[in-house]
Write a structure and sequence with these properties.
single chain, alpha/beta, TIM Barrel, two-stranded antiparallel sheet, 12 strands, 37% helix, binds flavin mononucleotide
Length: 335
């Protein structure tokens, strides 16, 4: 079995080790979502030792903006800044992917007016009531993701990750709690997954066969009546059929944490393992990892293919380099 230190090749891209910097909003972009010097610095130092760097969720449309200083990918004039960012990450030897997001019902009303969502139902934990998106607007959202993906590739990224987790627009479509539609986008799973599958199919076409397509999937809402891991397994298989290379496993409406498991290292790893068994495509596991030897173990045991470490790397920009050193020492002593 490979270790944390071993490379993995996916669609011709060699990822030098199994450590991933997962997408994490920094709030360092400019007012229109522009790349800033601070943002470049943030990624520069964190790209030195991770194999794969997934840049934070960037909004594909002004209507999908979630926070004030969120990174944007909604307009062509943002491409030069994004190109600088991609070059910085790749210059450090990491594979560079950028996450594309539409905030849906979680978009900030102060920034976007009334947010749009599958149905006029508040996202659990949020007080405002979004407006139900029309079918014409659904078609527009598809185009917005496609255009954003085109910009990412023009900027020089190795690929894109579609944000389908954490209760944002695509995760809202999957969940029976937020999707009460009666048309072909609501009701049975086949309908609830229609929009993300449309997007994935079109994005694969626009980025071409040489680029990476990742999908961050909310595998469970962890709520009564919500999206379940059994549905996630079916959905994951369909995503792979449509051209997704890697499933990045996280939460749905429950967000990036799993209720009751916050203190368990690797809390989404068992879910990632389950998806992996089903789809036979590489998966990323995540959740509360702080110990480099734990990160190595989940790879060595063949449970998952890549392991993402978020907050530990936000707090300590050197975490990845130190982790690789620690694992090298451990493996050296063992051999
Ligand atoms: C400050 C912060 C911002 C985040 N922003 C994003 C994001 O933009 N997209 C996303 O998919 N997840 C986001 N997440 C979730 C992380 O990618 C990760 O899944 C989560 O923090 C759990 O991993 P960890 O315990 O190693 O931090 C964010 C998390 C934090 C702490």
């Amino acid at each position: 079995m490979p270790t944390l230190l071993d490379p993995i090749e996916i669609r011709g891209h060699v990822i030098r080790n199994r450590l991933v910097l997962p997408p994490m909003g920094t709030g360092l972009a400019g007012p229109r979502g522009e790349v800033t010097d601070e943002l470049i610095k943030h990624y520069d130092v964190r790209s030195r030792c991770n194999g794969l760097v997934i840049v934070e969720h960037s909004y594909v449309s002004p209507r999908g903006k979630v926070t004030e200083n969120q990174l944007g990918i909604w307009s062509d004039d943002l491409i030069p800044g994004l190109a600088r960012l991609a070059k910085t990450i790749k210059g450090r030897g990491a594979v560079a992917v950028i996450q594309l997001n539409h905030g849906g019902g979680k978009a900030n009303p102060e920034l976007v007016g009334t947010p749009i969502a599958p149905s006029s139902v508040p996202v659990p934990g949020f007080e405002w009531v979004p407006r139900e998106i029309t079918r014409e607007e659904i078609d527009e959202v598809v185009e917005e993701f496609v255009e954003a993906a085109r910009r990412a590739i023009e900027a020089g990224f190795d690929g894109v990750e579609i944000h389908g987790a954490h209760g944002y627009l695509l995760s809202e479509f999957l969940s029976p709690i937020t999707n009460k539609r009666r048309d072909e986008y609501g009701g049975p799973l086949e309908n609830r997954m229609r929009l993300p599958l449309r997007i994935v199919e079109r994005v694969r076409r626009v980025i071409g066969s040489g680029k990476l397509l990742l999908y961050r999937m909310g595998v469970t809402d962890a709520m009564e009546g919500g999206f379940t891991v059994e549905e996630a397994e079916v959905f994951a298989a369909r995503l792979v059929e449509r051209g997704v290379d890697v499933i990045d496993v996280s939460g749905g409406l429950c967000g990036a944490e799993l209720p009751g498991k916050e203190n368990v290292q690797g809390y989404f790893v068992p879910y990632a393992e389950r998806i992996r068994r089903r789809v036979k495509a590489p998966v990323i596991g995540v959740g509360g990892v702080r110990d480099p030897l734990f990160a190595n173990r989940v790879i060595e045991e063949g449970r998952i293919d890549l392991i993402a470490v978020g907050r530990a790397q936000l707090e300590d920009a050197e975490w990845a380099c130190r982790a690789l050193e620690a694992v090298k020492k451990y493996l050296g002593g063992r051999r």
